[in-house]
Specification:
The complex is a heterodimer.
Chain A lengths: L16 H26 L7 H5 L6 H8 L2 H24 L3 H18 L21 H14 L9 H5 L4
Helix pairs in contact in A: 1-4, 1-6, 4-5, 5-6
Chain B lengths: L7 H7 L6 H7 L4 H27 L19 E6 L4 H9 L4 H13 L5 H7 L5 E7 L3 H12 L15 E2 L3 H6 L5 E4 L3 H13 L3 E4 L7 H13 L4 E3 L7 H11 L6 E9 L22 H4 L11 H5 L10 H18 L6 E7 L6 H4 L11 E8 L4 E8 L8 E5 L2 E5 L3 E5 L7 H5 L8 E5 L12 H8 L14 H19 L9 H20 L3 E4 L4 E2 L1
Parallel strand pairs in B: 1-2, 1-4, 2-3, 4-5, 5-6, 7-10
Antiparallel strand pairs in B: 7-11, 8-9, 8-15, 9-10, 11-12, 12-13, 13-14, 15-16
Helix pairs in contact in B: 4-18, 9-10, 10-19, 11-14, 14-19
Classes of the chains: A mainly alpha, B alpha/beta.
């Protein structure tokens, strides 16, 4: 029974109620986080990614520093990041294009993680609120989204139900 | 076992071609969360807005950039002479728009390797002041040649550029001033030459921009002030900190009595390298043939045999320099004088010594150990203002300590940014603190240059970045060299004076310079004579 495939394009009909509920709750929590991160940046005229980019350490820091050095690029990054976060948050909460939102969220989190990896040798300007070595909250959220990607719920609870879950 | 599992049968009706009631419910199930989200964001924004506006009512200080002197006059073209092109001279000419091609080559190369190196770009973007360098004078041939190469670099190019030589080299400042080729001079010689050259220029009606410390002795300060006052020149002393926006905002805060009665001010200098301690490199080509040693030592009471070490590291000896007093206390004092119009203190006491660079090995000296201290503290008393200004300096530690002005109702920390906190025991803010409108642990005002809004609830992230100078560096209002602004103000005043046919003096004029010089000299005399030194304001004399 568990292995029964969904009638729709996504395999999400084999969950128990409890499993489905928790997948949706996890999706909503991450969606809320993304949406508020996005909205708070959109509402703050002084927000810019430049400090974050300049503070980058580790293997990819050169790439992030050169992004910060280009004012036009910084403006684009600011726009894409703030509105991207909000859009991903909305997608996860409403369950609209959930799989795309999930992947996009993973891409952003991968950028955050790679720009500020919690290495043994890294010290950052922003003090972190916890203690991290190699694994930090960005990485955990990244893995959580990966789980959500593999166990989709949007076409059961979410607007995707209207899009992907219909049979002719 | 699978009690909770949704049955395939139940789903079947959902999967029909029609959208059923179940579909709608499940499809829209999460949407109410957006309502909760919107409510939360609205409440949060409202809370921040009200807290902020209450605070703004309590602390009436705007976020706008301070208004600075501007002139519409772009003419006439002004011919500039540069006297002294060692270390500060090149920086000043660069700020005026003229850099050595070899320097620009280096910046170009560096910006290719490191894209965040914007020195070349910033320099090219610097406003053209409509001036030319027509005369250079330096006692060291190599420096004079370098000055000529910068003067000719009108296109702001590297070595592959086109050059137009507009300048001539003069062996003495007298010849330069008498040439008829200069309207204004920038003086970046060692301190012991400042007064004689400035006076000679003033007597010829040539405008003066002179580096700090303005004079080497008390007597020189009086003499220079008298001459400049009688002349018709525009005079600017080289404290480019005058152009720092946070200083101007701090003055506004003082005028509005935001931190209450000020009792103590602390300012500091911290450096920790031979270069920072004035143990500069000795140029390999410096020898009696390339250096006019006799002219260098001309104003000195005691003459010394030719010494490249003394020539290139002149700040280490009282014969030529003014030590921490003239070089670095003056910057700090001038900043506070700009903010609070303190004037000359009633008394000065200082102490310190040559503690770190005390022997040849530690000091990287060739022949002679310095006599100018590397650790030095000064207490300046202002009984009429009921306050003390403390200066402490180390040339053997880089620990950064900001400027701090401490009042009964609050204190302000100054760097490029300005941050003001309320004091827990403040009388002025007592009720607001009790009402939790003002939180003593958070700033009541933050000014970050380039930022358009004032926000008490500055995010911690932003504060950290701002304190490291990482914010707004390459955005919006592009970061401009304060020295450029300081020279521009001088040039603007010269043009405005011509246009209005009366003298308009810039921010660091001879009166401000006189206060700076006398204050530094009092502190230095206290150290050298091991006593408390007083200023008799009525008789205008140091006693």
């Amino acid at each position: 029974m568990f292995k029964e495939k969904s009638a729709g394009p996504l395999p999400c009909e084999g969950y128990s109620n409890a499993q489905l509920s928790m997948l949706v709750i996890l999706r909503l929590a991450i969606g809320w986080h993304f949406l508020y991160e996005g909205i708070s940046k959109i509402l703050n005229p002084n927000w810019s990614s430049i400090g974050f980019l300049l503070d980058s350490k580790g293997l990819f820091s050169g790439m992030f520093h050169s992004m910060a050095a280009n004012p036009d690029l910084v403006n684009s990054i600011d726009f894409l990041n703030a509105w991207g976060l909000a859009a991903i948050g909305l997608g996860l909460i409403t369950g609209l294009l959930t799989q795309i939102a999930t992947l996009a969220g993973m891409v952003l989190l991968a950028f955050y993680y790679l720009s500020h990896p919690p290495l043994i040798t890294s010290e950052y300007a922003i003090p972190s609120e916890g203690s991290y070595l190699w694994v930090n909250k960005n990485l955990i959220e990244f893995f959580a989204l990966w789980v959500l990607f593999l166990f989709p719920s949007g076409n059961r609870i979410g607007l995707d139900r209207f899009i992907f879950n219909r049979k002719k | 076992m699978n009690k909770n599992k949704t049955t395939p049968n139940a789903e079947k009706e959902d999967n029909s071609s029609k959208i059923g009631r179940r579909d709608v419910l499940k499809g829209l199930a999460t949407l109410p969360l957006l309502g909760a989200f919107a409510y939360g964001v609205y409440k949060k924004k409202n809370y921040d807005r009200i807290a902020n506006s209450k605070l703004r009512q309590a602390v009436d200080l705007s976020a706008e950039s301070p208004v600075v002197f501007q002139t519409q006059q772009k003419d006439p073209h002004i011919r500039i002479g540069i006297i002294g092109y060692g270390i500060r001279g090149p920086q000043l000419l660069k700020a005026a728009g003229f850099a050595m091609p070899s320097e620009l080559d280096k910046w170009k190369e560096s910006s290719l390797k490191n894209p965040s190196d914007h020195r070349l770009e910033d320099f090219k973007a610097q406003e053209n002041l409509n001036i030319s360098i027509t005369a250079v004078c330096d006692l060291f041939d190599v420096n004079a040649e370098r000055a000529l190469s910068a003067a000719a670099n009108v296109g702001r190019d590297g070595s592959d550029g086109n050059f137009v030589q507009t300048a001539k080299r003069y062996k003495t400042y007298q010849e330069l001033l008498s040439s008829g080729e200069v309207d204004a001079v920038i003086i970046a010689t060692p301190d012991h030459w400042h007064t004689d050259i400035s006076i000679a220029a003033a007597l010829k009606g040539i405008h003066v921009y002179v580096e700090k410390g303005m004079t080497r002795t008390v007597e020189e300060a009086f003499r220079l002030r008298e001459t400049v006052k009688k002349s018709n020149i525009v005079f600017q002393l080289g404290h480019q900190g005058r152009q720092t926006e946070s200083h101007m905002k701090a003055r506004e805060a003082m005028e509005k009595n935001i931190i209450g009665k000020v009792g103590l001010i602390e300012v500091c200098t911290n450096r920790n390298s031979p270069n920072g301690a004035w143990v500069y490199d000795i140029h390999p080509d410096g020898n009696p043939q390339t250096i006019d040693w006799e002219q260098f030592e001309f104003p000195c009471e005691t003459k010394h045999p030719f010494s490249p070490e003394r020539f290139f590291r002149w700040r280490c000896w009282w014969d030529y320099g003014t030590g921490l007093g003239g070089d670095l206390l003056t910057h700090e004092f001038d900043a506070i004088n700009q903010i609070m119009s303190l004037g000359i203190p009633h008394s000065a006491v200082s102490s310190g010594g040559v503690y770190f660079y005390k022997n040849k090995e530690a000091g990287h000296y060739v022949n002679e150990v310095r006599n100018v201290p590397d650790i030095w503290q000064v207490a300046l008393e202002y009984p009429t203002r009921d306050l003390t200004l403390l200066y402490s300096a180390s040339l053997a530690s880089n620990k950064e300590r900001g400027k701090m002005i401490m009042g009964h109702d609050g204190y302000m920390e100054l760097s490029d940014a300005l941050t003001i906190y309320a004091d827990r025991e403040s009388t002025l803010y007592k009720e607001k603190i009790e009402a939790k409108i003002i939180k003593p642990e958070l700033p009541i005002y933050t000014y970050i240059p380039g930022r358009s809004t004032v926000d008490a609830i500055t995010s911690p992230t932003e504060k950290y970045f701002a304190s490291r100078g990482l914010l707004y560096t390459y955005r919006g209002g592009k970061r401009v060299d304060t020295t450029h602004l300081h020279i521009k103000e001088w040039i603007d005043c010269i043009r405005e004076s011509i246009a209005q046919d009366k003298l308009i003096q810039p921010s660091c004029n001879i009166d401000q310079g006189f206060e700076e010089a006398i204050t530094a000299h009092m502190a230095t005399i206290s150290y050298l004579e091991d006593r408390k030194v007083f200023w008799d304001a009525d008789k205008e004399s140091v006693v």
